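Input record, target 12 of the design panel.
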């Protein structure tokens, strides 16, 4: 008699939460969306607003995750974290969600390799500025895997971060690769100040304010 049990990781992912809300960021902003927040992250950004996703959560099969997402009836799905790519089977989930007919986006730190992500997925990659405390973790080779449907996000805490982002924009020709988003750290950099800097420098980037925080504030699960 075979008494061996499958590994809890086999065909499963550890999920912090799945919820239905309004997309607050990137090119799908404003759309009703289902968010699949996976547990775990190897980074510790100073301004992180999802520290509760670093640990805990529950194991769910990929079938169960896709079924839960489908039950909400939303076209748009965002797989986020934490850092979702820290779980290797995340790429399987992304493809399965695309197969189910969803418009799928992935929010990733840019510190982990994105080359295996299904090309149907819109990658929203966050390049870490110095104020995050994690700028040394940026995997610049990831830029080669971005296309016009993807987005690069810079979360900026102040002027030093802004100038770093401007230098990165010019050095790597980022605006020619994909949409570039500049987003102020909530409570640290006023959106008006960032907007005025962007206008003064004639930057080919898009200002992003987290819409969900304008609606619900800092309430988790929105």
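The sequence produced for target 12 reads:
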């Amino acid at each position: 008699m075979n008494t061996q049990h499958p590994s809890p990781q086999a065909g499963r992912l550890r999920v912090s939460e799945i919820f239905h809300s309004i997309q607050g960021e990137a090119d799908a902003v404003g759309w009703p969306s289902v968010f699949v927040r996976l547990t775990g992250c190897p980074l510790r950004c100073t301004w992180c607003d999802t520290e509760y996703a670093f640990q805990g959560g529950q194991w769910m099969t990929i079938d169960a995750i896709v079924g839960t997402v489908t039950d909400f009836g939303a076209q748009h799905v965002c797989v986020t974290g934490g850092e979702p790519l820290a779980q290797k089977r995340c790429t399987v989930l992304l493809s399965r969600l695309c197969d189910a007919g969803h418009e799928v986006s992935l929010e990733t730190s840019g510190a982990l390799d994105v080359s295996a992500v299904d090309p149907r997925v819109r990658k929203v990659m966050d390049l870490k500025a110095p104020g995050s405390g994690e700028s040394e973790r940026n995997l610049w080779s990831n830029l080669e895997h971005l296309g016009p449907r993807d987005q690069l996000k810079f979360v900026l805490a102040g002027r030093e971060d802004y100038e770093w982002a401007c230098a990165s924009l010019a050095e790597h020709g980022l605006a020619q690769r994909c949409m570039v988003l500049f987003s102020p750290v909530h409570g640290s950099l006023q959106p008006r100040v960032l907007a005025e800097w962007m206008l003064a420098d004639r930057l080919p980037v898009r200002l992003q304010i987290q819409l969900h925080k304008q609606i619900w504030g800092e309430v988790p699960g929105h």
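Residues 12-216 form a domain with the TIM Barrel fold (CATH 3.20.20.70).
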